[in-house]
Amino acid sequence: MARVKISNPYLNSNEVDFLSHFSITCTEDVRKEFENVKFVCMSGSSMRIKMYAETFHNETGVDLSENLCKTDRYAMYKTGPVLWINHGMGTPSLSIMLNELIKLLYYAQATDVIFIRVAISYGVGVEPGTVVVSSGTLNGLLEPIHIQQIMGEVIKLDAKLDVDLCKELYENALNLDIPVGKGLTLSTDDFYEGQARLNGAFCHYTKEEKNEFLQKLHSLEVRNMEMEGTCLAALTRKAGIRSAIVSATFLDRLNEDLERMNLSPDCFHDFEMRPFKVVSALLIKKLKL
Ligand code: R2B
After folding, report:
1. Which of 41, 108, 116, 185 could bridge to 34 as Cys pair (CB 3.0-4.6 Å)?
2. What pTM value is reported for the model?
3. Which ipTM score applies to this complex?
4. Could you say which protein family the record assigns here (predicted)?
């Protein structure tokens, strides 16, 4: 059985740790509450993660907790061995959430935990609505690396996802009535220029350069882009946690001149439920629900 790993000698001297962005004090009760966690499903938005947790509860009959985060930074729900938590947009927000969640699961002595980002993203050469199971992640420099800036230095961490988990998610998804693809996920620190959009407040390149860049991404086997993948992959690897990313793609950046989404609310909802369906099918199978 694999325990969640942390690597910080200074934590040992803390009597009782306090997870300030969750407002959770890590007393013995934390073990009772979180020791059985086997899956953590995460998404950017607090509304979406609540909807996923409620849908899982309605479909499986497993009890749904109240919101376990006592601050307005994040929202966290529990359905038996599955935690549902949002992480906000981008690496800084995700990284704060992951640091506290990894400590929480470490104190709880949870074992064999799997983290899955149930995500929204933008496609590269896939039909809008396709669910992309990430085979790996690239940062904005097109390297499979998560970059941290620590005390004036650049620290590079391997940002590989769990290959077997990705394969299992992809093969399971093929049995569902949902368009599915796999490929690399570009993870940027900026939504507009970072993802070569033409509709930000600033634009450092021409439309032709944007098109060339998107074609380059496609030839590198990038199939979608978002803003959290490398950080998730790198920090979970450090903690000995297997992780994967399953994303809805809202438009195909190769085919759209418009950089903004133009989906009806029903279509948006259908698309954002698709990665949830892929992930919940795997959870139901693995947990024998
Ligand atoms: C996808 O959507 C958000 C930006 O709109 C960001 O969190 C991401 O990765």
Report:
1. 108
2. 0.97
3. 0.97
4. Belongs to the PNP/UDP phosphorylase family.
Helix (H, G, I), strand (E, B), or coil: what is residue 267?
Answer: helix
Type of residue at 112: D
Compute the distance between CA of residue 186 and CA of residue 188 in angstroms, rounded to an integer: 6
**Rounded distance from Cα 224 to ligand 1 centre (Å):** 11
Confidence of residue 158 (pLDDT cuts 50, 70, 90): very high
In angstroms, the CA 278 to CA 283 distance is 9
227 alpha carbon to ligand 1 midpoint, in Å?
6
- CB-based contacts of 89: which residues, under 8 Å, 6+ apart? 44, 191, 227
- Count CA atoms closer than 13 A to 10's CA, side-chain side: 0
Predicted local distance difference test score (pLDDT) of residue 14: 66
Shortest CA distance to 274 belongs to which of 128, 88, 101?
128
Q: Which of 192, 132, 139, 204 is nearest to 166 (CA)?
A: 132
4: which DSSP letter?
P
Quickly list DSSP for 150-209. ETTEEEEEE----HHHHHHHHHHHTTSSS-EEEEEEEE-S-SSGGGT-S-SS---S-HHH
Mutation probe of ligand 1 site: the residue of 95, 226, 253 with most atoms within 8 A of C-beta: 226
* pLDDT for the residue numbered 256: 72
Cα dist from 171 to 165, 180, 181, whole Å: 10, 10, 10
Please state the rounded mean pLDDT for residues 48-69: 98
Closest atom, ligand 1, to C-alpha of 121 = 1
The SS3 assignment for 55 reads: helix
